[in-house]
Design goal:
2 domains
């Protein structure tokens, strides 16, 4: 009977840790959770009759977790650390960033200009490719003077592939 209660309690602890890990904001209002999740021992000592969790010695806690859970005690402890970290992150205030200096802005501007130039070149090359495609379709549709259409088409496509390889490189 005693072992069965420990198993049920461990399962409830595991379910509680999963809830804290998935939605830490629900538990952020009570700083007591940080103390409970801080160490393995404090989690083993935690009891809550409403949740069906009872306290036990650390050895019993470890043994029961190893037997009751498929992830074992290590999995339970990893979940405890994850829940603690996520709960701690809800209390952490973001660090104020230092204002950027002139040099940072200048390097950012230079980087953006380089990216804009590259995008502009790529756009112009793509325009050339589209015009070339229009020319090919018009010639194939209207020009009766092309002797071997397939050879002519292959030659034009090679030119487009050259332009396209420059765009993608």
């Amino acid at each position: 009977m005693h072992g069965e209660r420990s198993f049920k309690s461990i399962l409830q602890v595991y379910a509680l840790l999963q809830r804290i890990s998935h939605s830490p904001m629900d538990y952020a209002g009570d700083r007591e959770w940080l103390g409970i999740l801080a160490t393995q021992g404090s989690l083993a000592e935690y009891s809550n009759k409403e949740l069906g969790i009872r306290s036990c010695a650390m050895g019993t806690f470890r043994r029961s977790a190893s037997r009751a859970l498929s992830v074992g005690f290590k999995g339970l402890d990893e979940l405890r650390r994850d829940a603690h970290a996520k709960l701690l992150a809800t209390y952490a205030s973001p660090k104020p960033q230092r204002p950027k200096g002139r040099r940072q802005y200048q390097s950012e501007i230079a980087d953006l200009k380089m990216r804009l130039d590259k995008a502009s070149k790529d756009f112009m090359q793509m325009q050339i490719i589209f015009h070339k495609f229009r020319y090919i379709t018009e010639q194939l549709a209207t020009d009766d003077h092309i002797r071997d259409r397939k050879v002519w088409w292959l030659r034009e496509m090679r030119e487009i592939e050259i332009i396209f390889s420059v765009v993608t490189s």
